[in-house]
Amino acid sequence: MLRAGARANAAARVAWVVVGVVVITGVVGGIYRGFNGRPDWGDLRYESLYTWEHGHTAPGTAMFGYLPTTTFALWPFTAWVPNWIGVALFVASNLAATLVTIWILGRWWLRTEPRWEILVWPALLGCANLQHALQANQITLWTLVLCVGGLTLVGRGREWLGGLTLGLAAMLKVMPGVLGVYLLLRRRYRALGGMVLATVLFDVVPSVAVFGWDGAVAEHRAWLRHVGWHSNRHLIEQPLLRVHRHGTNSSLAAVLTRWLRALPECERQVILYGEPPAEVVAEYEANLGPGECLTLDPMPRRGTEWAEKRVDISWVPRFHVADWSPAVVWWIWVVLIGGGALGLAWLTWRSGAGGRENDWPIVGALWMLAMLWPSPMTRHYYLAWALPALVVVCQALVMARRQARGVGCNVLLVAGLVGWGVGVACLGSKLVRWYGVHLVVLAVLMAAVVMVWRKRNNVTTCRES
Q: What pTM was computed for the model?
């Protein structure tokens, strides 16, 4: 019979094999989808290639939330090589980002031996999220490795380089810009300067070089318009807006609206894009058929001032617990986001005041989870950003069990990990994702990380201070 240590080693090896198989299936899926032009590679390639050929972003671009930096970063894969080579290289870059992230977490975030036998369990819990990001051919894994790497550099005293790395992450996908607040509250001013420098080097300078001064200003104004058209307020005011395209969006604004507002009882949606004349809108409203509803989408279609589209939305769930006005739901969202942000800011400022900043992996993981909450768009592959938090909680649970302390803390840590497992099991259900199961899972995981943070300042154990 195998001894306990040998059994643990064998279990870890088996778990690493499972992680490897899941990641490889993500690579295969990403290549298959890319070769067939399916989202998201099809959208990323088409939109970035349009900018390369026309010298400006398309008016109704599917890359509505991305700064020009992302387009520039995609050109080596989309505009400079044949599609099949671009797909292979892009998937390879995402695989490299995944492996480097795991290595950084094991090398510098995990401080408990045996490192790799412990690391496999958060990797196992998070590998489905990594798989989805690989399959989707998204920018998520680029930003994951940049955030993990940047936080590691800052935590280890390489502030300028760390800030530059985090700034690049924020230029590729805006949500990591929240980490600038973390740096400010931690008095990491050189790192914050690095983020500002990254904005200049990776966004301003190449934008001016490619588009010219006037073009660069126009591109950023267009980006602001696109962001406004896809804002949380729009999601709350028009709950069916772009539901046919973003039916898997699980942002807090979208989920609150689904619970607290009644959706129109219609099976077909008539969408008018752009800026149709008032008389056209009135005509469409007067000629709606049975089971049809009209939605106005300010995002224009290419080549026209306005356009029409009809989609089937009979699949949209209609259950709700209240039917409140958009203003009430908006203020609930503001209170939740504002209250959470203030609480996190206070804890971060207070913990940094005494110079106890050796807890940077815990605080960094918590801020990476915080990136998800204010965003108007939260897709399932964004959950890959929770991998550092899973590492923090798994390590804390291991140490707490070894010391036989903190029973109450253990319960919350286990709940965070079990909850994440439940969330992974629910990834295949569009209905439970529609009503925000992953927001609940994220909240429990954040509570577990906060518990670890409160119980310790120097190492990721769960003991009384």
A: 0.94
